[in-house]
């Protein structure tokens, strides 16, 4: 029995032990539950939006955690990288899902903690509670819980055990924020993103640490000690005034601008620490251990502090060096960070005695203690979408540079355009040194809008080389510079607009993006130009002597004939050259017209029509009037060997008419789905008069009407700004204009820059030999002879993920050999341009693919003719007015300042050139082989008719898609075969455009005739929106989007629109109705084309049918208005959007972009959505949208209904307005001048 009892005793003891452990666990579990019940209500989710890039942080949105540490004052503790050093807008979401706005009041310059403040009175449905801070309770082995918003979850609780208290500060980024000069706690809690700022609590519900970071490759998490946090909290609590107001916190923070690391004695000995010093340090720590039984987790007895780096220009620079072992500070032995920081914080503004050992040698010196608040940037310069501030201590330490320099946090538009990269240091602007931000602001205020000045800078990656670039000053897109200053008392940033001196005393510039750099060259006297005297010839001769010839063969006297006036020189067909046109003399001799000379040259094969190209009567006639025929007249001079020279002479002739086109688009003007912000291509000068030059360029270079266009000429080292004048909505070309008066006098006198002649006919044929001439990026001519392999290759470009312009209804020229991706021209040997060698872009498998092809000159020539005709009418009207009232005209010109007056006038701003409207079928067609069409059931008689019509193509046109909201969408269906228009069979895109042109011209003529009848006073120009008229009927029946767009454009500004009419590409232009348009005061013309319907013969469902389709119309400049609201960019739906084939019933306005750090970013107001309602108000157009949002106050809650562009799915989201950092504004295009104007839209509340 005893044995049995003895055997049972251990079992009973074990059971009792298990029961005791279970009871202990249950007790601990209950204690943890009680602690967490008290902690969780104090934890909040922080939604932080950094509105501007600043210092170490970029603009953006984030979600993190914080916890209340003072419920009565509304103080929330979180991380520094959550508070962020820049301007922020933030909200705190409590446990009951109640949202309260919070403002940042303090962040530590070094350590990863900061405070936010909320108003406890705004918390209506729960009582705020707080978590006490207990930094001394952190010990190794302590069981902890991390309570926070881990991985985006509302509340998550992660457990762990403190494993270390002396972990080195984590290193987050080489160019961003990093903590240093402190130790961290470490535990394997596995926290991830979103848990930053979470409290690390013990079983008593006390915070023993602040969660700061983690290791992505392990479960390790890092917590900040709270000793310095407690000190800062006490000082912030004292900033509350009895009346409830707050004063700016003053928290002394001292530093030597040196980074220390903790190293063990084994490594310190290798650095040269003497044994007697080590013995003294260890003895000191033993005495401290004897006085206190617990070292408060301080690991000072195991190692010492060693200098890791020193900031140049700081107090320790030249005194301390990396590898120095810190022994004493003010006579006190220090081996850990906490004591060192306490001593430095108490010595701000004074000096401390620093004793170190360097390689075994003891050294001592007095070092000034730097106030960290003084080297923490609190001022932000907002410059054209970019952010500039003084270099902070954080970034100075990261890059080993002196604090206070001008640091680029975000380059934005102006600095980015000048090649200044992010994290660069600006050293000078316009020759003025910029050692600090104040100097930079003052230098910018001295610059005029449109001015170009040098800027010097360097990057830390290449710090030993100073870079220089040209800064193009443009205050139009973003307005003048603005300076933001932190106000810690209010928790906001105060803004001051630094208006440049030139704008403070004169009217602000209103143009956008194509401004010249004043002062410019004087405007030529029209009277002197019409009848030049001896002084003009002498001036030309003197200019020629001062400068060497610009090209081979241009010896003295080889320039322009002094007896000829410097009038207009057209690069168009002979139809433009009429009475009053001035012959053009070329400085390049003509090419011989002997076919035998060509046959002697290697690699050149004379074709049967070479005689036509070099010596035909038409070419000689063209040379006689000076239009592109410099090579056609034959070389009759003595002593000139023509044979081997035709190629360089041709290249030199084309160099005079080629230009490089650079386009830069600001972020606020990235409209119509444009794929990039920078473009470069080759342009062709096709017209030049005294006041206007026109350049044709592909739309892969000039995609939209926004942005700054800069021309670099191949014949002369000059750069001129340009304005976009016309963008064809279907074809891959556009027209930009420049002001020839800005060219040097020598260039104008010698006609070094002159237009090329577009030769629309005869069309190129397969096997034709052409000269492919391109202008490289270095402005050098690239030339080769190629053969046409296919003169009519149909273009089929895929739709991109983001809707944008696509070239449609085009047949391009293909060659056997090209010059890679260089664009240029295809010409014959007489210098006539037969096709534009254009760049195309399309998206293939989400990647951008570019290719080159030839666009026949017949496509662009009629539209050039149209604009030139309008310009010549304006010139004639202006000359007539000057003859009638020369004194008044001179006074008006003087009051406007003229070109180069320093007023920042846009290039060719005196030339009002409204773009023509384009009549379109509003349906995209694609070719289908007749063999395939027959399989779809196309009757054999139609197959035979189409074969007889075009035996080369043997195709029929099929409807690929119809534009949403168009009449074609109502009448036509996808896959319809279009057989004839107006009873005439068609088989190519040229046939379709010819029929559209004829119908539009007939309607124009009818409208003009009706307007000229007695009693029709408000003729065609005034009937655009009048009910009962043809145009008014179209306005009534047009889709809501188009009606709204016309109404908006008419209500916003007086748009000068020339009498518009469609012409067929490749066909002579129909007679136009002259409209007197003054050069300075545009006369409004038709806002819409007259209603035109076409009768189409189509094949559908096995039957041949007749249908009538009303033509649509497209604007010649595309989108003309952009509205920016809460960081979202809104516009009317451009053609690329309507090509998707669907417009919602209440489609509203289209969101094309959003900006980082804005409410649109924070709340998900994404691009490619329609805004159909705002707070329940339907939004049919931009005017209605502006009228609704102007009623909203700052910080107001807004309910927005969106429709997705692709799926049409409807959703409702809410957001808060932010008028301080994201005010409402709009960009408006003046179509007659090509200028964009920025307008602020203030709130009515």
Q: Classify the oligomer.
A: single chain
Helix content, binned percent = 10-25%
Instruction: Tell me the number of helical segments per DSSP (H or I, 4 or more residues long).
Output: 28
Question: CA-to-CA gap between the ends?
Answer: 96 Å
Report the principal-axis shape: elongated
Describe the main β-sheet briefly. 9 strands, antiparallel
Rg measurement, Å: 38 Å
Assign the structural class, choosing from mainly alpha, mainly beta, alpha/beta, alpha+beta, or little secondary structure: alpha+beta
Write the layout of secondary structure elements.
Blueprint: H1 2-39, E1 43-50, E2 60-70, E3 75-78, H2 80-83, E4 88-93, E5 99-107, E6 114-117, E7 143-148, E8 156-168, E9 183-187, E10 199-201, E11 207-214, E12 221-224, H3 227-237, E13 254-255, E14 258-264, H4 265-270, H5 275-291, E15 303-310, E16 325-329, E17 332-333, H6 337-345, E18 351-358, E19 361-368, E20 370-371, E21 379-383, E22 386-390, H7 393-399, E23 406-410, H8 412-417, E24 424-429, E25 432-433, H9 437-445, E26 452-459, E27 467-472, E28 482-487, E29 492-497, H10 501-504, H11 526-530, H12 534-546, E30 569-570, H13 595-599, H14 610-615, H15 617-625, H16 646-655, E31 658-664, E32 678-688, E33 693-697, E34 708-713, E35 719-727, E36 734-738, H17 745-750, E37 769-775, E38 781-794, E39 811-815, E40 824-827, E41 833-844, E42 847-856, H18 857-884, H19 886-896, E43 918-920, E44 923-929, H20 930-935, H21 940-949, E45 955-962, H22 967-971, E46 977-981, E47 984-985, H23 989-1012, H24 1030-1037, H25 1040-1052, E48 1093-1100, E49 1103-1110, E50 1112-1114, E51 1121-1125, E52 1128-1131, H26 1135-1138, E53 1149-1154, H27 1159-1163, ...
Antiparallel strand pairs: 1-2, 1-4, 2-3, 3-6, 4-5, 5-6, 7-8, 7-10, 8-9, 9-12, 10-11, 11-12, 13-20, 14-15, 16-17, 16-18, 18-19, 21-22, 21-28, 22-23, 23-24, 24-25, 24-26, 26-27, 28-29, 30-32, 31-32, 31-34, 32-33, 33-36, 34-35, 35-36, 37-38, 37-40, 38-39, 40-41, 41-42, 43-50, 44-45, 45-46, ...
Helix pairs in contact: 18-19
């Amino acid at each position: 029995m005893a044995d049995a009892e003895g055997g049972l005793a251990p079992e009973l003891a074990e059971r009792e032990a298990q029961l005791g452990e279970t009871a202990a666990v249950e007790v601990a579990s209950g204690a943890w539950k009680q602690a967490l019940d008290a902690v969780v209500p104090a934890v909040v989710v922080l939604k932080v939006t950094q509105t501007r890039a600043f210092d170490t942080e970029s603009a953006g949105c984030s979600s993190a955690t914080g916890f209340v540490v003072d419920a009565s004052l509304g103080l929330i503790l979180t991380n520094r990288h959550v508070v962020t050093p820049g301007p922020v807008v933030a909200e705190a979401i409590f446990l009951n899902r109640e949202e309260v706005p919070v403002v940042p009041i303090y962040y530590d310059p070094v350590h990863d903690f900061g405070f936010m403040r909320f108003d406890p009175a705004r918390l209506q449905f729960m009582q705020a509670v707080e978590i006490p801070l207990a930094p001394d309770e952190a010990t190794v082995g302590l069981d902890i819980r991390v309570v926070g918003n881990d991985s985006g979850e509302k509340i998550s609780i992660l457990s762990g055990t403190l494993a270390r208290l002396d972990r080195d500060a984590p290193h987050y980024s080489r160019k961003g924020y990093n903590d240093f000069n402190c130790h961290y706690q470490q535990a394997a809690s596995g926290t991830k993103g979103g848990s930053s700022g979470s409290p690390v609590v013990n079983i008593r519900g006390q915070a023993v640490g602040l969660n700061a970071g983690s290791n992505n490759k392990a479960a390790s998490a890092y917590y900040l000690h709270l000793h310095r946090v407690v000190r800062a909290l006490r000082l912030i609590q004292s900033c509350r005034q009895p009346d409830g107001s707050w004063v700016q916190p003053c928290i002394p923070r001292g530093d030597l601008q040196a980074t220390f690391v903790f190293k063990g004695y084994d490594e310190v000995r290798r650095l040269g620490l003497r044994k007697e010093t080590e013995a003294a340090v260890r003895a000191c720590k033993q005495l401290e251990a004897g006085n206190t039984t617990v070292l408060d987790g301080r690991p000072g007895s195991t190692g010492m502090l060693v200098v890791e780096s020193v900031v140049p220009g700081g107090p320790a620079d030249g005194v301390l060096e990396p590898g120095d072992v810190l022994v004493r500070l003010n006579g006190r032995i220090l081996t850990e960070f906490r004591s060192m920081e306490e001593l430095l914080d108490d010595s701000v503004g004074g000096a401390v005695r620093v004793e170190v050992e360097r390689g075994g040698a003891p050294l001592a010196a007095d070092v000034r203690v730097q106030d960290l608040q003084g080297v923490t940037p609190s001022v932000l310069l907002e410059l054209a979408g970019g952010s500039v501030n003084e270099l902070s201590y954080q970034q100075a330490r990261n890059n080993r540079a002196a604090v206070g320099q001008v640091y680029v946090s975000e380059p934005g538009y102006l600095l980015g355009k000048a090649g200044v990269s992010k994290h660069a240091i600006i050293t000078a602007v316009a020759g003025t040194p910029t050692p600090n931000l104040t100097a930079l602001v003052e230098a910018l205020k001295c610059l005029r809008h449109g001015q170009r000045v040098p800027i010097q800078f360097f990057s830390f990656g290449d710090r030993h080389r100073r870079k220089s670039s040209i800064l193009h000053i443009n205050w139009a897109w973003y307005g003048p510079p603005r300076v933001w200053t932190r106000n810690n008392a209010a928790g906001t940033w105060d803004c001051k607009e630094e208006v440049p001196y030139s704008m403070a005393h004169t009217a602000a510039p209103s143009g956008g993006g194509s401004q010249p750099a004043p002062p410019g060259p004087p405007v030529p006297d029209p009277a002197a130009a019409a009848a030049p005297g001896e002084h003009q010839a002498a001036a030309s001769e003197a200019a020629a002597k001062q400068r060497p010839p610009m090209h081979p063969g241009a010896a003295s006297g080889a320039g322009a004939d002094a007896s000829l006036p410097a009038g207009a020189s057209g690069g168009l067909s002979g139809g433009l050259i009429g009475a009053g046109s001035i012959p053009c003399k070329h400085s390049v001799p003509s090419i011989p017209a002997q076919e035998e000379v060509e046959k002697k040259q290697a690699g050149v094969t004379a074709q049967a029509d070479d005689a036509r190209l070099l010596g035909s009567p038409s070419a000689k006639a063209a040379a006689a009037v000076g239009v592109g025929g410099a090579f056609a007249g034959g070389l009759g001079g003595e002593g000139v060997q023509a044979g081997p020279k035709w190629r360089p002479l041709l290249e030199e002739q084309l160099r005079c008419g080629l230009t490089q086109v650079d386009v830069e688009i600001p972020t606020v003007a990235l409209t119509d789905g444009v794929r990039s912000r920078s473009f470069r291509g080759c342009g062709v000068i096709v017209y030049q008069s005294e006041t206007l030059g026109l350049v044709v360029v592909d739309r892969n270079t000039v995609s939209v009407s926004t942005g700054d266009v800069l021309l670099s000429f191949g014949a002369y080292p000059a750069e001129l700004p340009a304005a976009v004048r016309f963008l064809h909505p279907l074809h891959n070309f556009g027209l930009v204009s420049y002001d020839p008066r800005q060219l040097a006098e020598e260039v104008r006198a010698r006609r070094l820059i002159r237009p090329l002649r577009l030769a629309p006919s005869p069309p190129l044929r397969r096997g034709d030999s052409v000269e492919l001439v391109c202008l490289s990026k270095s402005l050098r001519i690239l030339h080769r002879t190629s053969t046409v392999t296919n003169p009519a290759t149909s273009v089929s470009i895929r739709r991109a993920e983001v809707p944008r312009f696509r070239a449609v209804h085009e047949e391009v020229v293909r060659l056997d050999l090209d010059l890679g991706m260089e664009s240029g021209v295809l010409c014959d040997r007489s210098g006539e341009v037969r096709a534009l060698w254009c760049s195309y872009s399309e998206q293939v498998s989400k990647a951008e693919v570019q290719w080159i092809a030839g666009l026949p000159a017949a496509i662009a020539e009629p539209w050039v003719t149209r604009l030139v005709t309008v310009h010549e009418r304006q010139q004639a009207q202006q000359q007539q007015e000057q003859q009638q009232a020369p004194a008044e005209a001179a006074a008006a010109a003087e009051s406007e300042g003229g070109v180069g007056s320093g007023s920042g006038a846009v290039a060719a701003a005196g030339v009002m050139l409204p773009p023509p409207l384009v009549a379109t079928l509003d349906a995209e067609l694609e070719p289908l082989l007749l063999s395939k069409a027959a399989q779809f059931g196309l009757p054999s008689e139609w197959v035979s008719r189409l074969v007889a019509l075009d035996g080369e193509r043997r195709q029929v046109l099929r409807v690929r898609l119809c534009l949403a909201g168009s009449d074609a969408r109502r009448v036509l269906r996808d896959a319809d075969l279009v057989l004839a228009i107006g009873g005439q069979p068609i088989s190519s895109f040229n046939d379709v455009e010819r029929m559209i042109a004829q119908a539009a011209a007939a309607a124009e003529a009818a409208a003009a005739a009706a307007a000229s009848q007695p009693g029709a006073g408000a003729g065609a120009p005034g009937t655009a929106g009048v009910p009962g008229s043809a145009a008014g009927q179209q306005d009534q029946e047009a889709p809501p989007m188009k009606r709204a767009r016309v109404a908006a454009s008419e209500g916003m500004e007086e748009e000068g629109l020339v009498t518009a009419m469609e012409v067929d590409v490749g066909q002579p232009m129909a007679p136009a109705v002259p409209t007197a348009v003054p050069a300075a005061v545009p006369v409004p013309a038709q806002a819409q084309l007259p209603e035109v319907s076409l009768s189409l013969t189509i094949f559908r469902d096995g039957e041949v049918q007749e249908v009538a389709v009303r033509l649509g119309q497209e604007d010649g400049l595309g989108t003309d208005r952009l509205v920016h609201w809460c960081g979202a960019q809104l516009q009317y739906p451009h053609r690329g959007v309507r090509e998707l084939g669907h417009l919602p019933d209440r489609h509203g306005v289209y969101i094309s972009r959003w900006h980082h750090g804005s409410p649109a970013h924070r709340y998900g107001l994404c691009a490619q959505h329609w805004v159909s309602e705002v707070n329940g108000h339907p939004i049919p157009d931009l005017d209605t949208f502006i009228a609704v949002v102007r009623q909203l106050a700052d910080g107001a809650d807004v309910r927005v209904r969106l429709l997705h562009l692709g799926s049409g799915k409807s959703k409702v989201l809410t957001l808060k307005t932010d008028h301080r950092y994201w005010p409402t504004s709009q960009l408006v295009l003046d179509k007659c001048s090509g200028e964009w104007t920025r307008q602020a839209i203030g709130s009515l509340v």
